[in-house]
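The protein record now logged underneath.
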Amino acid sequence: MLEKEFYVIVFDSTHYAIQTEKKLKESFRIEMIPTPREITASCGLSIKFLPTEFSKVMEVLRFEEDLKLKVFKIEKNEMNKNITIVL
């Protein structure tokens, strides 16, 4: 996916990343990616998804309190990359 705007979910452990990937890929178009270098606190794996699926993904994950995840919104333009912490 080469979108200019997307979300990434970052995790404290690879185990949580893989567990969440299995759950989300059943219903959503997601991609497991290396965590963007601008985001330093994570296990190194992130899940990338589109803004159109944000509400639905968050609905699924709101019951997963033990996952210890963070969600970031990434917006790219020609000059730089803006990163916003969402959750």
